[in-house]
Amino acid sequence: MSNGARLLAISLAGATVALVAIGTLWPNKTAVAFASGEQFSTSAGTPEAAVRSLGDQIRANAYGRAYDSLANKGEFSEQQFHRDLTSGWPDLRTYATLSEFQVQPLHASDTDANVQLKMQWSTVVGPSTSVRDLHVVRNNGKWQVEWPITKEPVVPPQVIPVNYLRWDVINRTSSDDWGAQDVESPHVRIVDMHPVQRAEGLVLLGELLNEDVVPAYVSVSATLLSKDQKPIDTEGSFDSISHQLLPKQVTPFLIRFPNVTLGKVGSVRMTPFSTLISASADPVIEIQNEKLNPAPDASVTGQLTNQSGQIANVAHVLGTFYDQSGQVVWVGDQYVDHALLPGVPVAFNIHIPEDLARKVSSQRTVVATYSFGGAQ
Amino acid sequence: MRAEIPILLASFSLGIASAVAQSGDLTIPKSIEAGVAFSIQSGGNGKGTLYIAGPGQFLKQDVQLGSSISIAQGSLYNAGHYSVWLTSDSSTQTGSIDVIPAQKPSDLTFIAKPSRLPVALHNAITGSAYIFDAYGNLITKPMQISFQLTNQGSAAQTRTMETRDGAAWTQMDSATREGKAQFVARVGDVSSTRIVGQVPGDPCNIKMNAKPAGNKIQLVTDPVRDCSGNAISDGTIVTFTETYGAEKTTVDVPLKKGVASVEIPAHRGATISVASGVVLGNQIRWAQ
Question: Among A181, A211, A249, whose Cβ lies nearest the Cβ of B194?
Fold first, then answer.
């Protein structure tokens, strides 16, 4: 072994020992909870401290201790409390962890208080925020949270006949003659495309139509070309698109080009991609009470209602925002972190950037759903 | 014997003049059809070895010099230029032969695109055909090939083309009625068939009707058809939009048995519209 390699090995060993020592002497709160089972904050001397303690316990997945600390635990079971936070049906929240939370006092007296708990969950598709307004009461000199339980809706046992179409695809095999016919890829068309300069870079917005009679799996990529026709960058829409399009369905798309300015771009080469996909026309999702909310906190809100019998475990809502001339000015999206049960409305809220909100005159919303076992 | 081949090739490349001089004793047909039997007349006497090398094929045969050497049927079948060497202890005779594709078509590769397209499009279906003999050689001699597109319930479209360099192509119109069309390419008694799906075009004149259903409105479209009268395929998305004040309700509904149907909340004064893809239908104002 050379002197250099020996020195490196000694350095790594030393650093490992040092980090183990630091982690042992000053562990983070989550590690303490997992290791010792002790509460993070035993002090409930103030309403905020009680809520903060509850938040710490939820973050550490210590639902039993969190339930025990509640003032109104006689009104519901620990299982119902757990399901209220993590969902009873498999969905984004089921696999989420509480990454952080904020506590905001709203009102306080000597005997009770109202405190807002804003929870940021880490899900597989990004952060998801939920807000609970908590009533905190003083019992025997100790502040305790009354949890506003949202009991999971129960869908009555029933048989819902579903006879929507389903498409299956059989492609050619490798043993077929090279001239043998294959099933044609779905015909899709970009019906609108518009570049928007944002502070973080260039954004391409547009809409894609499946003009065929079969379902399509779609995506869009774009290459920016400079004025001398040299490629600057190529990016795809990733998840800012509804990937599954039924016949005559339209999806918005958004492609981000970080750190690119519109002035450097001479032209754009758009490449829509489509391929046949086995799909079902079910479930049908109704978007109710859609409303454009003006700035501040501009957004489009509404409720999704699953009109079919199949549970949609994950719903992705995409909003297309148009100006008065009908041109796309923004595309926003939100993953709904609760499963869509048959007939049970679930709220959504798509944020609109403040500087664009005043340009928005109308909007259109589409929903892509994914059911346990694959996209539907 | 394998060791002799490089030696032969080397001697051939280094001594072309000598090879040409010796080739006079070797009588070879200038060209043959792929797969046919033929004979080579050699000069000299004694025993020798015949080598024939060409595209993808190599033959070796022990022969008696000065006699006719028979090459059996099916021995040379890949079209192309072949080199011939006849060697003995004292001499090497060389020559060449061209193998051309058999004149009888045996196989047809037919590419029809697209396999699915909307009705009533002009020159939208393309068929390309390549003619091969029994050994898979592309027949480059011009031949007459017919293309026929048959739609159920309408007259067949027929084109006759002449192949050029082994290939011919044509274009056809899609029919005005939906359905599967048979697209056939035929040369001699060889034919190949492809199926072309002709599907309805964009919806035309979408019309919906509304009636109360409790505290909801039931919306049902008339059977949705394209501008040629074909029923739009089931599964096609129809979008119902109800606008009331600043709020809106939207449902994407797939067609089922030709119609789209949905129930949405009833709001007095709401405007309800219907669309499919880029085609708009009628509007209804709900007064109840």
Answer: A181
pLDDT of residue B17: 31
CA dist., res. A142 & res. A46, Å (int): 8
Which residue pairs, CB below 8 angstroms and at least 24 apart, start in A36-42?
A37/A62, A39/A65
Q: Does A181 touch chain B (CB under 8 A)?
A: yes
Task: Name, in order, each residue with C-beta under 8 angstroms of A199's C-beta and a sequence gap of 6 or more.
Answer: none
**Do the Cβ atoms of A191 and B278 come within 8 Å?**
yes
Confidence of residue A334 (pLDDT cuts 50, 70, 90): very high
pLDDT tens digits, residue range A30-42?
A: 555 555 444 455 5
Q: How far is CA A367 from CA A236, A250, A283, A376, B62, in A?
A: 20, 11, 11, 12, 78
Provide, as residue numbers in chain A, all residues whose Cβ is less than 8 Å from the Cβ of B236: 213, 246-248
pTM above 0.80, yes or no: no
Condensed to tens digits (0 to 9), the pLDDT of residues A294-330 reads: 888 899 999 999 988 889 999 999 999 999 998 999 9
Name the nearest CA neighbour of B122 among B189, B55, B196, B175: B175
Probe site for chain B from A248, A250, A280 (most B CB atoms < 10 A): A248
Q: Indicate which of B116, B226, B273 best probes the interface with A, i.e. most A CBs within 10 Å of its own CB.
A: B116
* pLDDT per position as a tens digit, A357-367: 999 989 999 99
